[in-house]
Amino acid sequence: MTATAGSVCLEVRDATRSFGGLVAVNAVSFQVARHSVTAVIGPNGAGKTTLFNLISGAVPPSSGRVLFEGTDVTHEAPEAKAARGLIRTFQLVKLFPELSAVENVKVGFHLRSRGGLLAALLRPRAIRDMEAAIEDRARALLHLVGLGSAADLPAAALSYGQGRLLEVARALAAQPKLLMLDEPAAGLNGDETARLASLIRDIAEDGTAVLLIEHDMHLVMNTADEVVVVDFGRKIAQGAPDRIRQDPAVIAAYLG
Ligand SMILES: Nc1ncnc2c1ncn2[C@@H]1O[C@H](COP(=O)(O)OP(=O)(O)OP(=O)(O)O)[C@@H](O)[C@H]1O
């Protein structure tokens, strides 16, 4: 399957999901380009979380397709998608509270490094080298998200906002090609949101496509290249933030 070759990282085609008589996601199609940030926005209950579940594999679609890097992954489990580089963080922070920040990030490496681990187990020297490389990389990622000085603190000692940033660092450890963020700014203060916005731009510029659900319009307008707007399960608009802000259908959805 080469239909999404080139600059497209993710393609969602006519994704549909019903729950009983309710069509939570209704024939939604869009693409996410490499090096780009795409935001999915919409009123409460519009279908954003269900759409994310269809893409990550947590919920199978009733119909439609999901293509990742040109391959049809519609019916793959979340773990298989993660191994391909489609990585999602969750709305709830699920960190290991007793482990240090750097240990939490190291957990992220194992989301994608299955084959290499067995080979390393057979060679103790290789394990030590690998562990040292992972430690260095984990500390570099903490530095990137602004938690360099908190590397050795237990995750339980971090503020809520720091915990969310730690979760992003852990997701980056898995070397995503596509990073899916569920409401990453929820619960963050203004400074943390500003740091997160610049971090998201850096991640995209480094080559990882970012797809986010976000209610914080300031973050959306400051980070997204492309905004997909859903309402009652349907895509009602798509485009650059400036255009979306003035779109009559979007304004009506939010006022209505
Ligand atoms: N497992 C489920 N069973 C039945 N209905 C569901 C299920 N999951 C979601 N829904 C319904 O699908 C619709 C879309 O929900 P969804 O959570 O995807 O919206 P959302 O845009 O993420 O909302 P919010 O912004 O409030 O998180 C809602 O009407 C919701 O009640």
Automatic annotation (TrEMBL):
Protein name per its UniProtKB record: ABC transporter ATP-binding protein
The entry's keywords: ATP-binding, Nucleotide-binding, Transport
Keyword field contains Glycoprotein: no
Domain of life according to the entry: Bacteria
CDD domains according to UniProt: ABC_Mj1267_LivG_branched (cd03219)
The ABC transporter domain, residue ranges: 10-255
Upper lineage: Bacteria, Pseudomonadati, Pseudomonadota, Alphaproteobacteria, Rhodospirillales
Natural source organism: Azospirillum oleiclasticum
Family matches, as Pfam families: ABC_tran, BCA_ABC_TP_C
SUPFAM superfamilies the record matches: P-loop containing nucleoside triphosphate hydrolases
Record carries keyword NAD: no
InterPro entries found in the cross-reference section: AAA+_ATPase, ABC_AA/LPS_Transport, ABC_transporter-like_ATP-bd, BCA_ABC_TP_C, P-loop_NTPase
One Gene Ontology molecular-function label: ATP binding
